Each structure stands twice: as C-alpha cells, then as structure tokens.
Amino acid sequence: KVGWYNAVLQPAFHLPYPDDTLAFVVLSTPSMFDKALKPFVNKEWLKIIRDPVDQCVSHHLSFVKEKFPDQKVDIIYDYEILPNRKPKFLAQTAAHVAGAAYYYQRKDVKLDPWGKKKIYGVCIHPKYGGWFAIRALLLFPDIQVPLLEQTAPIDCVSTEEKRIELLEQFNFHWQDWCYRDIIEVKERYSEEQKAYFATPPSERFRLLGLPGGAQ
Length: 215
Prior knowledge:
InterPro entries: MMACHC. The strands form 2 sheets. This protein has a 3-stranded antiparallel β-sheet, sandwiched between helices. The chain has a two-stranded antiparallel sheet with strand order 3-4. The protein has 215 residues and is of the alpha+beta class. It has 7 helices and 5 strands; from the N terminus they run αβααβαβββααα.
C-alpha cells in the first residue's frame, strides 16, 4: 500500500495517492538480460534506441498496462526524476516496504565503524542476493486495499558482521560485484551481462551491435 511507503519517508518524498492505494514494485531478475533485453534489441522495436534497458522495461510494462483496460495504471520508472532533481520514488524503500527485498542501511548496524563517512544502503533479495534490479512502480489509483496485510522482507543478512561486510563492499568495492554474493544465490548475472553493465553507458551500444544511439 502507498501508505506503507509514505509512512517511513519525509513528506517531500511522499507519493500523492491515498494510503490504501494498491502498488506493485517491479524487479528484474538475472534472466531478464537473455529473456527480455536481447530479444527486444534483436526485434528492433524502436527506430531510435536511447537506453536499451530502460526502453525494454517500458516496452514490457506497456503490455502489463494493456492487460487492465478498465483500470487506471500509473507507472513510475526508477530513473525518473522530479524538476528538483529528486527521484520520483525511492526504489529501495519501496522494495523493502513491499516485502520484496531487505534494504540494509547504516542504522541496521549497532556498532558503526565508519565515523563521518557517507554510507549508502543496499537491497538484498533472499533468492538473488544483489543480482537483481528495481525497475519500476505500478500504481492502481482506483483500487483501494484497506485490508491488505504487510509482509516484512526476509532478513537474509542477519548478523552484524555480515551487514558490515555488505555495506563495506557496496560502498567501497562495488565494482568487483562481491557485495551481490553476500548470501548464497540461486542465480546471478551471466559473464556477458556483467560485461554489459560494467561498460560505460555510451559504449554499450557497441556490445549490442548497435551503432551509436540509432537502429
């Protein structure tokens, strides 16, 4: 429910919907790369491809929207920002309150070893660890669910030692992918997918066989 999300954030980040409004957090799993992105690029759905992943996600969620012709469906994507440069929604907070993935933050560590350093939090999925992404929020403004019960996310990094290790790896060594394997995972990115996401965005078209930003 939108109210779960708004309840844990400052008013500046609240979503402008009644508290009982139904919402869904959309995640992409490791198989998205082969099952959705590569076919999307190969079929050349668009004449101009600016960001293949973002446009692929948008393409597939447009089909979801079509499945509910009698319902108003609002979609907010993880990359969208407001005029004040704030994100339209805080993806990791949304995933946590929806019970999809646990958002580990500095406040989850009792004996904080970082002093004045800025420490960012990170979501971990009980099945995929850090090998997933939060892509969008689907909102159904006309559906109110006052009786929907909140499910807590699975706390899969439950020890103090492991939480410190996770936040250390994510904040200071994120390029080596290690934080994503903080727990035993059932599936991870392929080497091809890792190469794609490790490549600067401007050079990713070459990996996909696309010249520049065009077809």
